[in-house]
């Protein structure tokens, strides 16, 4: 617990070394933050959804998460789980970005929808 308190204290005071460590986690192993790579990938996706992240960031996070053992089902589950907290606008904006990152041709699927059904 002491280590966690120290890490939080250092981040709270904008300790340069601690901030650098946090900001370079995209290139360092995610275990540096105490999460296994699988969990870190799911967290990163949740953050992108909450922040309305750009498509290329979804591509990178999705590819990394899949490589670290996440499944497409889990990634869509993160999107659905985030919904009550982030609201429908973020879910609707993020869904096509995640779909494309998973290799799903969302545009073609939307064109096949029968408006009368």
Keywords:
2 domains, 117 residues, 0% strand, single chain, 7 helices, mainly alpha, elongated
Structure write-up:
This protein has two domains: 1-29, no CATH class; 35-111, no CATH class. 70% of the residues lie in helices and 0% in strands. The model has no long low-confidence stretch (mean pLDDT 85). With 117 residues, it is mainly alpha-helical.
Please trace the helix and strand order, writing H or E for each element.
Answer: HHHHHHH
Helix content bin: over 70%
Task: Please tally the β strands and state the result.
Answer: 0
Q: Which runs of at least 5 residues are low in confidence (pLDDT < 50)?
A: none
Number of helices, where a helix is a run of at least 4 consecutive DSSP H or I residues: 7
Secondary structure class reads: mainly alpha
Rg from C-alpha positions?
A: 17 Å
Give the averaged pLDDT, no decimals: 85
The end-to-end distance, rounded to whole angstroms, is: 56 Å
Major sheet description: none
Query: What is the overall shape?
Result: elongated
Q: Strand fraction band?
A: under 5%
Domains (count) = 2
Present the secondary structure layout:
Blueprint: H1 2-12, H2 16-23, H3 37-51, H4 55-67, H5 72-86, H6 88-101, H7 106-111
Helix pairs in contact: 3-4, 3-5, 3-6, 4-6, 5-6
Summed up:
The protein has 117 residues and is mainly alpha-helical. The protein has helices spanning 2-12, 16-23, 37-51, 55-67, 72-86, 88-101, 106-111.
């Amino acid at each position: 617990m002491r280590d966690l308190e120290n890490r939080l204290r250092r981040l709270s005071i904008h300790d340069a070394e601690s901030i650098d460590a946090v900001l370079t986690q995209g290139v360092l192993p995610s275990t540096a933050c105490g999460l296994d790579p699988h969990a870190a990938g799911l967290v990163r996706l949740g953050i992108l959804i909450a922040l309305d992240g750009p498509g290329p960031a979804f591509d990178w996070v999705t590819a990394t998460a899949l490589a670290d053992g996440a499944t497409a089902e889990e990634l869509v589950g993160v999107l659905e789980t985030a919904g009550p907290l982030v609201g429908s606008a973020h879910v609707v904006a993020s869904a096509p970005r995640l779909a494309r990152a998973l290799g799903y041709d969302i545009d073609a699927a939307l064109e096949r929808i029968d408006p009368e059904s």
